[in-house]
Specification:
Layout (H helix, E strand, L loop, with lengths): L7 E7 L7 H11 L4 E7 H4 L6 H10 L4 E4 L13 E2 L1 H6 L4 E5 L2 E5 L1 H13 L7 E5 L3 H12 L4 E5 L3 H14 L4 E5 L4 H5 L4 E4 L23 E4 L8 H9 L2 E3 L2 H16 L5 H13 L3
Parallel strand pairs: 1-2, 1-3, 4-6, 7-8, 7-10, 8-9, 10-11, 11-12
Antiparallel strand pairs: 3-5, 5-6
The structure holds nicotinamide-adenine-dinucleotide (NAD) and (1S,3R,4S,5R)-1,3,4,5-tetrahydroxycyclohexanecarboxylic acid (QIC).
Nicotinamide-adenine-dinucleotide (NAD) binds next to helix 6 and helix 10.
Length: 290
């Protein structure tokens, strides 16, 4: 037996989270640091629980001795109304993926944005990021757009098939980054915009195992572009492979997956795991087909 102060009990709440690789990444990092740490997926689909019950789940988790939760689709926004405090970044993005329970209070953070930022710095060191074209304005898109603008991107063009969604996202980003040029673009503008930007970021699901393909026509992609993807299943998406073959610098989605896990682990335990070690573990798990 151990108390909440002596060991860690963590959960990932969301739809379809059973195959997530975030639990094993946390558990291995804890093992390396000699911590007692259990991380369980709490799959709303399997449990037939509605996403709207996220507040009750958090309360139940606190009573059952959980230290923290990661929260994913479709609860990242829904959870906002059930927290006692929210970090400035998570508040600005309007989404929380990490909730720590401290003295009975729920504190929300967003490590998707901070994790992507770190991945960008580590995986694309020195790459010019003044002008960027981003595809996808959903949950991941909101976090990575915030991360890009916070790390100095001056012109960000965002394309999404859902016009209302991209317009809303652009308005929110402009409030937080009034000095930057944030622009909603259409798929038809992609070839021209590629001619103007330093890099391309995919935050759509196109390229995932169950959504194969390329999210854009890559005819206008050049070796001078860097290309980043949020998708890490597979880690080598069609886009990453095509860009690498063209000679572009690439950043696969594993960097973001590791970044969000490492940052959440640090928030939960106060210990920062070695990023390269966690990435090695993630690639090992992916190689095994997990
Ligand atoms: N690496 C990580 O840690 C991490 C974290 C979160 C999400 N992701 C990945 O990011 C991807 C997106 O996730 P999400 O939660 O933002 O999904 P989402 O459904 O919230 O948003 C995806 C958006 O992409 C748009 N879209 C789809 N096809 C498009 C196209 N061809 N061109 C332009 N826009 C298009 C959709 O309209 C939608 O708005 C998923 O593959 C997810 O697995 C990775
Ligand atoms: O790996 C996953 O399954 C995640 O759900 C991915 C992303 O949504 C993160 O914000 C979560 O912390 C973990």
């Amino acid at each position: 037996m151990s108390t909440r102060a002596e060991s860690y009990l963590v959960g990932l709440i969301g739809d379809g989270v059973m195959p997530s690789l975030t639990p094993p990444m946390h558990e291995r990092a804890a093992e390396v640091h000699g911590l007692r740490y259990l991380y369980r997926p709490i799959d709303l689909t399997e449990l037939e629980l509605p996403a709207s019950g996220i507040g009750e789940l958090l309360q139940a988790g606190a009573k059952l001795g959980f230290n923290a939760f990661n929260v994913t689709h479709p609860c990242k926004q829904l959870v906002l109304g059930h927290l006692d405090d929210i970090s400035p970044t998570a508040r600005a993005i309007g989404a929380v993926n990490t909730v720590v329970i401290q003295d009975g209070k729920f504190i929300g953070h967003n490590t998707d944005a901070s994790g992507f930022s770190r991945g960008l710095a580590e995986g694309l060191p020195g790459a010019r990021k003044k002008k960027v074209l981003q595809l996808g304005a959903g949950g991941a898109g909101a976090a990575v757009a915030y991360a890009l603008l916070a790390s100095g991107t001056e012109q960000l063009h965002i394309v999404d098939l859902d016009e209302d969604r991209v317009n809303h996202r652009v308005q929110e980003l402009r409030k937080n980054f009034p000095q930057a040029l944030v622009h909603a673009a259409t798929p038809a503008q992609v070839p021209q915009l590629l001619g103007e930007v330093d890099g391309l970021l995919n935050a759509t699901p196109i390229g995932m195992h169950h959504h194969p393909g390329l999210p854009l026509d890559i005819a206008a992609l050049e070796s001078r572009h860097w290309v980043a993807d949020c998708i890490y299943r597979p880690v080598d998406t069609e886009l990453i492979v095509a860009a690498r073959n063209l000679g572009c610098q690439v950043l696969d989605g594993g960097y973001m997956a590791v970044g969000q896990a490492v940052d959440a682990f640090e928030i939960i335990t106060g210990i920062r795991p070695e990023t390269q070690q966690v990435r090695g573990h993630l690639l090992e798990l992916l190689e095994k087909g997990l």
